[in-house]
Amino acid sequence: MSETAPAREAWGSRIGLILAMAGNAVGLGNFLRFPRQAVENGGGTFMIPYFIAFLLVGIPLMWIEWGVGRHGGQRGHGSIPGMFESIWKHPVAKYLGVLGLFMPVVVLIYYCYIESWTLAWTWFSLTGATQGLDTEGMRAFFGSYVGLDNGTVHGAWVPFVFFFITIVINFWVVSKGLTAGIERLAKIGMPVLFIFAAILVVRVLTLGSHDVMVDGVVQQSSPVDGLNFMYTPVWSALASPKVWLAATGQIFFTLSVGMGSLQAYASYLTKKDDLVLSGVATAATNETAEVVLGGSLAIPAVVTFFGVAGAVAIAKGGSFDLGFIAMPLVFNQLPGGAVMATLAGVMWFGLLFFAGITSSVAMATPALSFIEENFGWSRKRTAWLLGTIAVLLGMCHLIWYTSGFLDEWDYWAGTFGLVVLALVETILFVWVMGPDRMWDELHEGAAMRIPRFFKFVMTYITPVFLLVMMAWWTVQDAIPTLLMEGKPAAEHPARWASRAVMLGILVLQLWLIKTAWQRRVRDGKVVA
Amino acid sequence: MNPLALAFMAGAWIFVLGLTLWSFRKLMKPEPSHEPLPPPGSIP
């Protein structure tokens, strides 16, 4: 087969590229998921498997995805189906690539819904809506927002408005194009995110001691207790496979690998562009946001005002409880009264919003490129079409959030699917292309040589790590999740509907791939 | 702070901040510029 590669857009600057890539990686998980994972999986000792997974899976996958993306982009493909076919000249390759369209679209839709919460809570912080609420009041406030049928605090229309605004902002940014939209957003959003986070970290770590009631006894608690709680090592955790898999999973989520969005961004690179050092810089920026900033915010702040036991109790409902219930409670108790509560709330939810939007615009890119390149639609028209679909399908999440509709998408596309795509792309890029060609491809235009040890890691260790992870997750989680074990019978209809919608998206995308390739052959872009 | 917790936190911070600073310092380094040589015979 021979292909012609049309001219494509390019990144305006190297710093713009790295900020956009890092923006893609830095998301809500850096500030909400990481601290919980560390606390639940051995505290300080969690950092050992975490950094080992970073070196053996995270960084290698980062290079692989940049390599897959640039290789495909050079041949005119901005999304995974074409990228896979450019590596593996087999009719099945493009259909395997559906994973790289399916995951970002599915995750984008529910991620935008979560992102809309951060926008809503920024507004609530500004208007003082959460000030003066106690723990139960804050729970009711959150519950009323996500459970539309329980409109004790919010009218049911409120979440729809914030969701709609979030989608409009997202697709307005992507409709502007690579440099005027995505790159500009990253150049504004990432510095704002880091500045807000740094200010909050300084404020949290200088809070001093506060009285906390523990079992009827008043005790002193401070941010240092929170850091102790988070980093005190539990050595026995190192012997637990669950901890190692949790660490690898966290590296996966935090670096946004296995999604299809990094490859879409990398497709705009040229042969002269470095991807080795840029990949490391992107991963390192994300790690700084996660370990230094994310690790020093929620847990130390909540422990200071509620003690370790209180923090555990508040966060028992998950990361969202930590971010949307516990943190506003902390802000209400900061010295400085209503002004400080407003400022801290705006900064916290503002930084979460920027963390979210710089990731969600990246998730929109693969589908956008696919339609644009294969069906000749303009970027603006494609963006608004996808935005409309996101609004319509997103409604399901708003309506059935409390029935587990979102959980199904989050598990199959946002968790399990990531490992599947990462494994498939690693096999194609390393084994089908061949380790030597892969190595040469990565070093085209590179500003530094990758230590040779990583060639062995990428060829053998990374795929084995991914295989083990997939097998473990299949046995531990995928089968029980598929069978809906432990889920209330009342949720089953919504969960089945959720799966049916996902299946519909998958089938539609497979059909689009088939149609696109028929058009390519017809237009002479692919000669069979 | 518990010394072991402090050691783990410091180690994690040093690793990620070090990697970030190292990579950005290397990235920001301007490419070596190659000044054109003077024409042959122009140097006495």
What is the strand and helix layout of this fold?
The complex is a heterodimer of chains A (528) and B (44).
Chain A: E1 2-3, H1 14-25, H2 28-40, H3 47-73, H4 80-87, H5 91-96, H6 99-127, H7 135-146, H8 157-175, H9 178-205, E2 210-214, E3 217-221, H10 223-231, H11 241-255, H12 261-266, H13 276-293, H14 298-314, H15 319-332, H16 337-375, H17 379-400, H18 405-432, H19 435-443, H20 453-482, H21 492-523, E4 526-527
Antiparallel strand pairs in A: 1-4, 2-3
Chain B: H1 3-28
Report on this model:
The longest helix of chain A is centred in the C-terminal third of the chain and has 39 residues, at 337-375. Chain A has helices spanning 14-25, 28-40, 47-73, 80-87, 91-96, 99-127, 135-146, 157-175, 178-205, 223-231, 241-255, 261-266, 276-293, 298-314, 319-332, 337-375, 379-400, 405-432, 435-443, 453-482, 492-523; strands spanning 2-3, 210-214, 217-221, 526-527. Chain A is mainly α. Chain A is globular, with a radius of gyration of 23 Å. The model of chain A has no long low-confidence stretch (mean pLDDT 90). In chain A, strand 2 (210-214) and strand 3 form a beta hairpin. Chain A starts with a strand and ends with a strand. A two-stranded antiparallel sheet of chain A has the order 1-4. With 44 residues, chain B is an all-alpha fold. Chain B is 59% helix and 0% strand. Chain B is built from one helix and no strands. Chain B has one helix spanning 3-28. The longest helix of chain B has 26 residues, at 3-28. The radius of gyration of chain B is 23 Å and the shape is rod-shaped. The chains are: A mainly alpha (528), B mainly alpha (44). The A-B interface holds A 14, 18, 43-45, 47, 51, 224, 227-228, 230-233, 277-278, 280-281, 284-285, 287-288, 290-292, 295, 447-448 and B 1-2, 4-9, 11-13, 15-17, 19-20, 22-24, 26-27.
